[in-house]
């Protein structure tokens, strides 16, 4: 009988199993897909590198950074390229560049003079005292003003989460900002203290072969403990712990970790914990299209001197955000070429997932050509359709997470981890996985202590 069965072989599941293995426990990962890694897929072709899912690792989560250091991955990590100098936002059909300097928005005319004064006054505004939940739009309107919320935060919500700033919870989507307000009384004060070194840096790393390097490394360390092509049909309580029914037979384990998407967690939780199943089922994950385009450098008139761009809402446009991948990291395109990824669908335009590939690529290229002064068609393109994309941390998310975190209280030995709980980033997933592994260890220790008294 196994100590632990981890269901799901994405970064969260692999990291949880690796943490358990390091501590001497017998953990096995069951993954439905043939290749582990979940949505952290990096694909190289014709000299290009496409990221199907996440593109960066943020060094702002110390626990996650320590895990990568233990995996000896930091030595090969690449920081952003030197050409990343600006951030771009699209508003009313045109791109506006803003300096990457923290004071960039104050120096730019992207915001009106009135809005920039409102930003400066943020440091003087009192912290929220009633503890009531807010959307990220309401929070930033209160702290910085309505124009800031509409022209900066709304595009960020659409580009980073493929969501709606008026529906996403500040405690879920941007918990760090809420923490800064409570800790420092001001977001600006919190950012200034972070830049002085009192808080972790915010480097965005990747690797020569992309973010997929992380799950690939974890899977290699775990070896035969990762079983791919295995579909889990049901998890049931048993006298010894749990019976996991799979497409390749039953597996017995003392504890089980669900490291799957919310809809899968809902199905597996229903026979065991209706409250947990309902909480997971309430987390939406709208579809997302990723469109990867390769161009000759001379085709593109824009300097591409930034991470990419985010877009305010425009019903005549379909791109929520784009990344200039070959500017962000070297090796993303052959010499003389550039690589760009655009993101569509999400909460703004879920119907776009139904477009055929040729139409989708054509529409995305059309928008990019207008914004980036591109002459001629792309030399190469790929698409990725995620029928279920990023989980939405909508209002009430903290309560749903509390219910999911307490599943182990109602069903001892059953744990949940993943990007739909406390952060969608790779770093957040690694940190949560470590917390989950520690919870499993504590559960197994309590079981062991209880066994002698039970046998007596």
Question: How would you characterize this protein structure?
Answer:
The protein folds into three domains: 2-41 and 213-284 and 392-455, FAD/NAD(P)-binding domain, CATH 3.50.50; 43-81 and 285-386, Protoporphyrinogen oxidase, mitochondrial, domain 2 (Polyamine Oxidase, Chain A, domain 2, Alpha-Beta Complex); 111-199, protoporphyrinogen ix oxidase, domain 3 (Orthogonal Bundle), CATH 1.10.3110.10. Helices cover 38% and strands 22% of the residues. The chain contains 17 helices and 18 strands. Strands 1, 2, 9, 10, 11, 12 and 18 form a seven-stranded mixed β-sheet that branches. Helix 1 runs parallel beside helix 10 (213-222), helix 1 (11-22) packs across helix 17 (426-455) and helix 11 runs antiparallel to helix 12. The chain is globular, with a radius of gyration of 23 Å.
Which percent range fits the helix content?
25-40%
What's the number of domains?
3
By DSSP (H or I, 4+ residues per run), the number of helices equals: 17
Measured between the Cα atoms of the first and last residue, the distance is 22 Å
CATH architecture of the largest domain: 3-Layer(bba) Sandwich
- What is the percentage of strand-forming residues? 15-25%
In the CATH hierarchy, the third-tier topology of the largest domain is known as FAD/NAD(P)-binding domain
Work out the number of β strands.
18
Q: Class by helix and strand content?
A: alpha/beta
**Global geometry:** globular
Q: Sheet bearing the most strands, described?
A: 7 strands, mixed
Average pLDDT number:
93
- Which CATH top level class of the largest domain fits? Alpha Beta
Low confidence ranges = 197-201
CATH superfamily of the largest domain: FAD/NAD(P)-binding domain
What is the alpha-carbon Rg in Å?
23 Å
């Amino acid at each position: 009988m196994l100590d632990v069965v981890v269901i799901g072989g994405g970064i969260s599941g692999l990291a949880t199993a690796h943490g358990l293995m390091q501590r001497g426990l017998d953990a096995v990962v069951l993954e439905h897909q043939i290749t582990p890694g979940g949505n952290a897929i990096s694909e190289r072709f014709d000299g290009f590198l496409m990221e199907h899912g996440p593109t960066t690792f943020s060094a702002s989560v110390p626990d996650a950074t320590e895990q990568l250091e233990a995996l000896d991955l930091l030595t090969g990590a690449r920081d952003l390229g030197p050409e990343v100098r600006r951030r771009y936002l699209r508003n009313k059909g045109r791109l506006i560049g803003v300096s990457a300097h923290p004071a960039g928005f104050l120096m730019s005319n992207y915001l009106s003079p009135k809005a920039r004064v409102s930003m400066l006054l943020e440091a003087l505004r009192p912290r929220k005292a009633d503890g009531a939940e807010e959307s990220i739009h309401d929070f930033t309107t209160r702290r910085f003003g309505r124009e800031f919320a509409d022209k900066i935060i709304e595009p960020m919500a659409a580009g980073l989460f493929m969501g709606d700033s008026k529906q996403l919870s500040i405690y879920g989507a941007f918990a760090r900002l809420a923490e800064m307000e409570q800790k420092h009384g001001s977001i600006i004060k919190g950012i200034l203290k972070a830049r002085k070194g009192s808080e972790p840096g915010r480097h965005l790393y990747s690797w020569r072969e992309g973010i997929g390097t992380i799950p690939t490394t974890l899977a290699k360390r775990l070896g035969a403990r990762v079983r791919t092509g295995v579909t889990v049909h049901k998890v049931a309580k048993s006298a010894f712990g749990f019976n996991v029914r799979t497409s390749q037979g039953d597996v017995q384990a003392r504890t089980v970790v669900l490291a799957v998407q919310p809809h899968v967690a809902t199905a597996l939780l229903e026979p065991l914990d209706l409250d947990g199943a309902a909480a997971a089922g309430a987390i939406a994950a709208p579809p997302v299209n990723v469109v990867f385009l390769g161009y000759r450098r001379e085709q593109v008139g824009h300097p591409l001197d930034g991470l990419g761009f985010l877009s305010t809402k425009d019903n005549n446009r379909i791109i929520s955000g784009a990344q200039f991948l070959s500017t962000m990291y070297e090796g993303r395109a052959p010499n003389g070429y550039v690589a760009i990824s655009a993101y569509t669908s999400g909460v703004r335009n879920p119907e776009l997932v139904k477009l055929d590939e040729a139409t989708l690529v054509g529409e995305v290229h059309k928008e990019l050509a207008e914004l980036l002064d591109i002459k001629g068609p792309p030399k190469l393109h790929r698409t990725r359709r995620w029928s279920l994309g990023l989980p939405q941390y909508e209002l009430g998310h903290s309560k749903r997470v509390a219910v999911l975190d307490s599943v182990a209280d109602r069903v001892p030995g059953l744990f949940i981890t993943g990007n739909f709980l406390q952060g969608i980033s790779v770093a957040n997933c690694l940190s949560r996985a470590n917390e989950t592994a520690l919870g499993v260890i504590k559960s197994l220790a309590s079981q062991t202590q209880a066994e002698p008294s039970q046998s007596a």
